[in-house]
Design goal:
Elements (H helix, E strand, L loop, with lengths): L3 E3 L9 E3 L7 E7 L7 H16 L4 E6 L7 H10 L4 E5 L22 H8 L2 H11 L4 E15 L14 E4 L3 H9 L3 E4 L5 H6 L5 E5 H6 L8 E16 L1 H5 L3 H35 L3 E3 L4 H8 L1 H10 L2 H8 L2
Parallel strand pairs: 1-4, 3-4, 3-5, 7-8, 7-9, 10-11
Antiparallel strand pairs: 2-3, 5-10, 6-9, 6-10
Bound molecules: pantoate (PAF).
InterPro entries: DctP_fam (IPR018389), TRAP_DctP (IPR004682), TRAP_DctP_sf (IPR038404)
Subcellular location: Cell envelope
GO biological process, one term: transmembrane transport
Length: 326
């Protein structure tokens, strides 16, 4: 029978064969992420658990470790490499520190729409990038989704790039994002996501940027007054397994995990779409002041130097392929 557990407390478990003596031994696997339970990532983990349990006849139980219970995304990726966590869904935020080839995906205004992003990430280009990730002591199963990112802050409405000036804005630990916000005049402050709510509350930072599913599930209305729908970057997510887990699976089992991954991606994308449809209304109901129509061309021009820095370091081959594919 399908069962999923969420642990509130942190705790690193290796793969544990549990319930010995039962007709079919059950193996408990930790699937970790940093967003809230019932968020878009959580929906993916739940769909994964259900499909894997069904295909394996209950052999595998997924233990969801939500809300940063096992650390921030950088910690989780390191955990996969040393085998202290089995499965993770993460944004690409810290991934470029492990696999620089993925940094191209973090360039602002690269993807024109959700459909365009799905077409690229589900096709040859996405597969080539997954293969690169898998060369780094990680097993990259699929691209999933975080969503288009928007700016929130507690100080003033952001209507033009000039309004970003000197705003102490939390960014992901990602050099492309930091460079883009520095170029736009903000003061980027990289920080792991589990620390962000408290930092906003204590006004260590003025603002942050994240997709609607994150802003709603983290209840940022409690600590942020202003939201601007900048849509400045499409934020992919990736589903990763630890080589320790993967290398111990039979080919048949790997097939089950791949099917479960498909179910996870579909569920996460469906939740992102639902949150996109209802989230802004919800945020307004909770008192947020939302600036909906922004001059995207002005924001695009403001972050343009991030492209020059990126190309001078990493070249433009993959960038051009992605641009040509949309
Ligand atoms: O802002 C971030 O760090 C990411 O978008 C998040 C919320 C951890 C989801 O991947």
């Amino acid at each position: 029978m399908y069962r999923i557990r969420t642990l509130a407390a942190a705790g690193a478990f290796a793969i544990s064969a549990a319930f010995a003596g039962a007709a079919s031994a059950q193996t408990v696997l930790n699937f970790a992420h940093t967003t809230a339970q019932n968020s878009h990532y959580s929906m993916g983990v739940q769909a994964f658990a259900e499909k894997l349990s069904e295909l394996s006849g209950g052999k595998y139980e997924i233990r969801e470790q939500a809300a940063g219970a096992m650390g921030g995304e950088r910690d989780l990726i390191e955990g996969l490499q040393i085998g202290s966590v089995e499965l993770v869904i993460s944004s690409t935020g810290p991934l470029g520190n492990f696999v620089p080839e993925t940094l191209v995906l973090d360039l602002p205004f690269l993807f024109k729409s959700y459909d365009a992003a799905h077409a690229v990430l589900d096709g040859e280009i996405g597969q080539a990038l997954l293969d690169k990730v898998s060369e780094n002591n990680l097993v990259a199963l699929a691209w999933s989704e975080n969503g288009f990112r928007h700016v929130t802050n507690s100080d003033h409405p952001v209507k033009t790039p000039a309004d970003l000036k000197d705003l102490k804005l939390r960014t992901m630990e990602n050099q492309v994002h930091m460079e883009a916000f520095r170029a736009a005049g903000a003061s980027p402050t990289p920080m792991a996501f589990p620390e962000v709510f408290a930092a906003l509350q204590q006004k260590v930072i003025d603002g942050q940027e994240n997709p609607i599913p994150v802003i709603t599930s983290a209840k940022f209305w409690e600590v942020q007054k202003y939201l601007t729908l900048t849509g400045h970057v499409y934020s992919p997510a990736i589903i990763l397994a630890s080589p320790t887990l993967w290398d111990g699976l039979s080919d048949e089992e790997k097939g089950w995990f791949r099917e479960a991954t498909k179910a996870a991606v579909a569920a996460t994308r469906a939740k992102v779409a639902a949150d996109e449809a209802n989230g802004v209304k919800l945020l307004r109901e909770h008192g947020m002041d939302v600036t909906e129509s922004v001059d995207q061309a002005a924001f695009q021009a403001a972050v343009r130097p991030a492209y020059d820095t990126f190309v001078s370091k990493y070249g433009d081959e993959m960038l051009k392929r992605i641009q040509a594919a949309q």
